[in-house]
Amino acid sequence: MAELHLNGVRKVYAGGVEAIRGVDLEAEDGEFVVIVGPSGCGKSTLLRMVAGLERTSEGEIRIGERVVNDLEPAQRDIAMVFQNYALYPHMSVFRNMAYGLNNQGRPKEEILERVQRAARMLQLEGLLERKPRQLSGGQRQRVAMGRALVRDPKVFLFDEPLSNLDAKLRVQMRVEIKALQRGLGTTAMYVTHDQVEAMTLADRLVVMNGGVAEQIGRPLDIYQRPATRFVAGFIGSPSMNFLTAAVAADGRSLELPGELRVPLSARAGPTAGRQVTVGVRPEHLHLSPGSGPRLTLSVGLIELLGAETVVYGHPAGHEEAVTLRVQGVPEVTEGQDLELGLDPAHVHLFDARTGRSLSHPDDGGAV
Amino acid sequence: MQKRVGFDRWALPYLLVLPQLAVTLVFFIWPASEALWQSMLRQDPFGLSTEFVWFENFVELFHDPAYLHSFGRTIVFSASTTFLSMVVSLLMAVAADRVMRGANTYKTLLIWPYAVAPAIAGVLWWFIFNPSIGIVAYALSVLGVDWNHYNNGAQAMLLVVIAAAWKQISYNFIFFLAGLQAIPRSLIEAAAIDAAGPVKRFWTVVFPLLSPTTFFLLVINVVYSFFETFGIVHATTSGGPAAATEILVYKVYKDGFIGLDLGSSAAQSVILMAIVISLTVVQFRYIERRVAY
Ligand SMILES: Nc1ncnc2c1ncn2[C@@H]1O[C@H](COP(=O)(O)OP(=O)(O)OP(=O)(O)O)[C@@H](O)[C@H]1O
Ligand SMILES: [Mg+2]
Q1: Does the domain formed by B75-120+164-288 have CATH 1.10.3720.10?
Q2: What backbone phi and psi angles, to 5 degrees, belong to A121?
Q3: Least confident of A342-346, B130-134, B285-289
Q4: A159 C-alpha vs ligand 2 centroid, how far in Å?
Q5: What is the least distance, in Å, from the CA of B190 to any CA of chain A?
Q6: Domain regions of chain A by residue span
Q7: How high is the ipTM of this complex?
Q8: pLDDT of B108 higher than 70
Q9: Per-residue pLDDT, A367
Q10: For residue A39, how far is its CA from the centre of ligand 1 (angstroms)?
Q11: Which CATH class is domain A241-351?
Q12: Nearest residue in chain B measured CA to CA from A148
């Protein structure tokens, strides 16, 4: 058990690809850190640097009190679960789990006891003599977890461990992973591009984009107070709606096309005439407009999900499409014009040029 | 409805396989049956009369100390050649796999020696080890080793083994390298995290996963050293000294074309044919069962 510190970490691959452009990250002992971001943003690279499978070009990685930059993976006291599980195909489940302990030269009885305990935790007891190819995808996943568990490492590393499972199993394993990690109290670093996994697993969420951590924080904070336009658009499903606007001459309100005006709170003080991006989450548009600003939407596609309904449409006078999410099954038909209410308290403002949040300028990580 | 694509006349498929059938017939079935027939005949020394003797040629062979000696030499030769070429090529493949993944020019360069005909390989080694002009023979004499494969049987065997193995190394290398590259990187990484050092990793993860390739190459190399090494022996030692390098294929040639004992020579080639067929069967059965893990 240990804290994890990343300090100004950079990675330049041979050939000049700068995959990580300076990441600072701290994880407390026992914390579950989730790294989320689009494909190619450097999530795996970052994880592999912590594992010691990639050299760190610059910066410092610390596990507990030790700087591990120059240590071999085996010396770092970490365990990793790979996306394709990476089980040794010629070894039985037992030998797969015992392999690491064997290599550490542990006594036979201890190995047996540890493997059996892990097998019990993961409901693998009846499968110990099987070869990996005789297991289902979910069972393989458990064996991969078991192999990490028995080592009792300082840090667990997961690289998209659930992405090869079907949707139902994924939910089940997600819950199990969280419970196991809680129970063991081991620090974990988990890479995913699934934002539900990210939101539900994380104690601390890192949203990455293009080799930088755009925002680091608690999942709900990130959801409610995204630091950049990218984070706002990436976290939340369906995605946040974005509309371009300009700050009115008086600096007190926003002018959007279609005669829409949104009052500005005093706190955010963008200068008059400045171009901004307005962000509103689909669930913050109401079908029953109150006294506040309104948006007229010409309804396009409607997705009925039962518990909720997602409506896609085009607001009058805007280029951008807008998504609306309402509870239950509203009476809406395609082609209809809808009056939507917009709650100014839930409006996010972003600098149109840099994408930085103007509503929550003091949040977020290093950009 | 989808239009069915097929042969509208029955003759076409036969026409298409005809060239292959003809080649097999002319270059394999015919000579093979000829050899089978010959192996049961015996001619008098002047070639005036021929007698059908059933399996007497075979019986005689297995009572002939020279033939049994040749068999022994072949086993020594084959085992050494296979072992040497496989170990060296595996070492090279592992080294290459470490430094490069996907650099293709290097791979193509390494298959070149394979393209060099075995006879040329033999001549090359003959020059290098020639007691009077060879560079290696000279270097060895400087080191105090008296190299003369013309009268030292062990040295002659060593020479043909090296020459035969050398030719096979590049072929094995390509297969080993392909086998190594087919092992998922994450397995090696998992082993590295599981505290296995490079040597341990090799023996407990890489080598077992390579076993299908190894077995395939084993059969290929044994077949090669049994049957395709005539050129090398002929150009390097001509079977000598004192039949120390007289392996089975070479003896077939020597008894048949120099000794002109056609019946015995044919019987010997039938035995060789039986060996290659059984090796092939072993290989096919194994490949059908696929991977052992
Ligand atoms: N070995 C390598 N050599 C050169 N560039 C690499 C190497 N591995 C990754 N990259 C590059 O580094 C960047 C980050 O890759 P990385 O694998 O970390 O992405 P990722 O966030 O894990 O993406 P995904 O979600 O698709 O797995 C990519 O642009 C990728 O092309
Ligand atoms: Mg990845």
Answers
A1: yes
A2: -60, -35
A3: B285-289
A4: 7
A5: 7
A6: 4-229, 241-351
A7: 0.83
A8: no
A9: 37
A10: 8
A11: mainly beta
A12: B194
